[in-house]
Amino acid sequence: MFKWLKKKKETGVKELPDLIALFSESKDFLQYEFPQNPQPFLIYYLKTMVDDNTLHRDIMPYIKKESVQTLEDLKAEVPIENIIITDDLQKINDGLLHGSVVIRPGKGGKECAIIKAPVNFTRNVSAPEVEFSVIGPKEAFVESLDNNVNLIRKRLPVENFKMKQIKIGKLSKTKVAVLYLEGIANEENVNTVIQRLEDIQIDQINDSSYLAQLISDNANSPFPQLIDTERPDRVASVLGEGKVAILADGSPLAIIGPTTLVEFFSAFEDYFLNWIIASAFRTIRFVAVLFSLLITPTYVAVLTYHYELIPKDLMATLISSRREIPMPPILEAIFLELAIELLREAGARLPTKVGQTIGIVGGIVIGTASVEAGLTSNVLLIFVALAALGSFTTPVYRMSNTIRLIRFPFLLFAHLWGLLGVVIAFCFMLIHLLRLTSLGRPILEPLYPLRIPDLKDALIRLPFSFQSKRPVQLQTENTIRFKGAQAKKKNDFDE
């Protein structure tokens, strides 16, 4: 079909018969005359794009009526909204490609009626798979843009809920929606998102992940600068805070921004739990990520340069575990890290049941065999396994991948300069994060620049009654969410 469009551009189609001739090269393009009398109409449509029930129930019976003599009569009779009568070849072309039925009077004429009858194949709303939560709603986005907007609108039934739609992609012409709450979201953030989307020059957009890469502030950073989510309740929540959401037709993920680094370690289930428990879980995630990032490089640095830091009681255990290992600590660590990554990648690419088996059996077999063969120490095996578990605690999959990747530069620096190298690598990472932004906003907020009011929902989560104001870093037009003093009152009555 795209070949025809290119041919159309080269040959310069100027008449409707020429356009129909180009579409006729496809086997799924149908054209016929109906009915034979009293007034025949020429009908054109792509069979694979049109809903047969709509065609035979809502269009064909009305064409046979004797009162239907012109396209205006047909428009008045057919019970379908937004019927367009035009002679614009571009509109006719777009209508055919997007599932419309084009009807033309049999006696000739340039004008055609474009009647929308698209077929929509989409799966039903199901439970989240990536961001599953034990407590809370069990709805996830699907591949239909209209369905996804509906899931958000029913959670935000307010008149200032706004949606701007843009078509992106010279070939795919993907519908992209920008969602925000007027009067709450910062206009600068909204305009920044819309401008960046309109400036995109690309042939295809197959998923919202493309958009996240194309509009990010720094495309060369391994750290994600926008959060993708499959949960409608999370999108509705951040819209209420003043953020902007992006949906793409054909993608089950929404993009939200601007965002901060601490949000990548905050699960939305935290808001369904008591604030003390949620804060404890959030703290565990931060500690687990730091452990995952630093434990293996620290092992390599200590065994390579800093034996004096090892306690005497632990020294005997390390000596016995490394007594028959021929490789230096750096090669031993890289071997195990790569083995873990291979198992994880193999488990992700194989079918679910087979992948789980490979992950469990492969981990046990490779771990046991490598220790017995004298290739790795059992102490490092435990550290690498715990580091892998620590990276799994990150709620956002993209950040989990980043943690897995940057562990290798830390290993290299640890091998070259010991603990000093680990500190240097950490400083490089910190400098990069200090310069990184999300839609122009510093990604390290509220830690730097320090926003004390926003710390109530950063490293820990305080009760909802303390969160009466929207985040300062978003610079929203309406900063007040609710009256905090009244929220803390308990208006009990005497029995």
UniProtKB/TrEMBL annotation:
Key words, A-Z: Membrane, Transmembrane, Transmembrane helix
Q: Which domain of life is it from?
A: Bacteria
Q: Which Pfam families does the record associate with it?
A: GerA (PF03323)
**Which cellular component appears as one GO term in the record?**
plasma membrane
Q: Does the keyword Transmembrane helix apply?
A: yes
Annotated TM spans: 286-305, 379-398, 410-434
User: Which GO BP terms, alphabetically?
Assistant: spore germination
Family, as annotated: Belongs to the GerABKA family.
Q: What is this protein called?
A: Spore germination protein
